[in-house]
Amino acid sequence: MASKQTILIIDDDSRNIFALRAVLKSMGYICISTTDPHEGLSMLDKDDSIGIILLDMMMPEMDGYELLARIREGKYKAMPVIAVTAQAMLGDEEKCLAAGANDYLSKPVDVDALSEYLQRYLN
After folding, report:
1. In a domain, 1, yes or no
2. How far apart are CA 5 and CA 118, in angstroms?
């Protein structure tokens, strides 16, 4: 794996974080996580080993779209971001990609697709 192999999970539901961390740990990845989008931005500033973000798009206060815009306007504009969302309606994937996500996964997460994306962006 590349040197920037830490995965940052930002999701307001701790159960989703728990499930993703378990899957990612079994794949050998290092994960850090937060339920707070503001803390997620702070974590990006403090940890230069982060290589990718798994971002929930539907969160209270600051949703994933607003957070993604902040990520893209700052020094992390090239950071790979995978939108991970329960939104699975027609057009939702396109909306996430248009907002700046590199890829899109609907919940429940397809582990094989997640693994493929991580290999693509981290290796």
Report:
1. no
2. 9
